[in-house]
Specification:
With about 325 residues, the protein is an all-alpha fold. It has one domain (about 15-80, about 115-315): Growth Hormone, Chain: A (Up-down Bundle). The protein is about 75% helix and about 0% strand. Strands 1-2 form a two-stranded antiparallel ribbon. Helix 3 (about 45-60) packs antiparallel against helix 4 (about 60-90), helix 3 packs antiparallel against helix 8 and helix 9 runs antiparallel to helix 13.
Length: about 325
Amino acid sequence: MAMVGLSMASSFVGPSFQALVAEESAESNRGKVYGITQGAFQIVGVIGAPLGGLLADKYGFKVMFMVATGLYFLATALRLMMARKIRKEEKTPVAAPSFAHLKTSLLSILGLLTAGGIMTWIFISDGIGDVSFSLVGNLFPLYMNNIAGLTKTQLGLLGAVASIATMAFITLGGILSDKRGERVGIVLGYFLIGSALFTMVNVKPFYAFALAWALLGIGQALIGPAYSSLISKVVPQKLRGTAFGLFSTSLGIISLPAPYIGALMWDKFGPRVPFYVPVVALFIILPIIWFKFKLPKTNGAVPQAEGPGGTVPQPAGPVAPVEEPQGVAAD
């Protein structure tokens, strides 16, 4: 029940925040804005991961979860205070949510997903990656602790290494997305993540694991802003929140049996075998991403977002100085 509640809370926050960032940023620097906000969020990983590992080692998991619960309540209180201020400043009336509006939005998004354009290939490639990583997502702590022999504190330090690497490179990842195109950052990011996973299951020293997790963090830094920026550009403004939410939901459903399959592979073929599946899958989808994730050239005009009936002009809002993330595929 606790995991269900935590997942529900994340599902409300993530899509709305991604859509908000897109609305409050210009398309010319949207990747950079996503990078800045997601980089700020990585501070949580830098501080929280080693702190959580230390608390679990010294006082047990119960104390760790109690501290985490207190921080969640504090964050909720701060967010409620912010919401009151925002409501007072809003001047444009917002339509009340309804099932009819949700149905229309979902049908429009489904039309985009089945049209054979960029959205279709984003969904296919992201689905392959999501299923592959779900095979090993729950096996990481077991492998690190039982096979590699790392302590909980060392696990926390590895999480901090990945977060520091992500925080250091994520703004550069956003700039790369804006200057060279989203597909460049996504391809480079997936290549680094695949290399990190391969390294992780073939080394023993702690410093080698730290290097692998640094590569993992850099890969996430390149992918996060690029994916968010790309989706925001190919989806009409009024459908962005629904699109981000539907991607998370549908991919989660598709990958639902993956953890069980990963555990079976662990038992049948050994603890290293499941980790090779994401590596192979990533290198399979790299050519798909490179050739299919291409936005049409606009010759200096404002890019257009694909709509179910053609293209819909994408108005750009004022540039927001901040932005926020994702979330392990990966994910």
